[in-house]
Write a structure and sequence with these properties.
This protein is mostly helical and about 140 residues long. The protein has a domain of about 90 residues. It is built from six helices and no strands. Helix 2 packs across helix 3 and helix 3 runs antiparallel to helix 4. It is extended and about 65 Å long. The two termini are about 30 Å apart.
């Protein structure tokens, strides 16, 4: 299936409504769902609920790591807990990256090697296209 342009994705036909978040999602997960669905065509992806849950879980784990006191690392139990949190964070990051790539919402899935090089070369530098010279374009 060919990829659609950003303009095509922004337009939803008459009578087509964006799907509401799945019933089991939290408020944070539902908000993420709406943001992602707004960038996609009228249909949804079955992996989106899992992606929203993975991002939400990752944020909870990150909060636990932020609250972790450095002196807790001096005890074997504290060291074990910290190691477990870091492993959980790594698993969630891998899951998020995998699901995001499958749904084509990550940079990796949006660009091939040549496209990424071109995008980097043409990154917005504050100059409008009509202000550039022919050499810069």
């Amino acid at each position: 299936m060919a990829r659609q342009s950003a303009a095509a994705l922004a337009v939803v036909g008459p009578g087509v409504r964006r799907p509401e978040p799945a019933a089991g999602l939290t408020a944070v997960e539902a908000d993420l769902w709406r943001k992602i669905v707004a960038t996609k065509p009228g249909d949804t992806h079955p992996l989106l609920s899992a992606y929203c849950r993975a991002v939400s879980a990752s944020e909870v784990i990150a909060q636990q790591i932020e609250r972790f006191e450095p002196e807790w690392l001096e005890s074997p139990e504290g060291l074990l807990r910290y190691d477990k949190l870091m492993q959980m964070q790594a698993r969630q990051a891998t899951l998020i990256a995998h699901l995001g790539t499958k749904m084509r919402i990550t940079q990796q899935s949006k660009y091939g090697a040549r496209g990424a090089e071109s995008a980097a070369r043409h990154a917005f530098d504050g100059t409008k296209p009509w202000q550039r010279t022919a050499k810069e374009a």
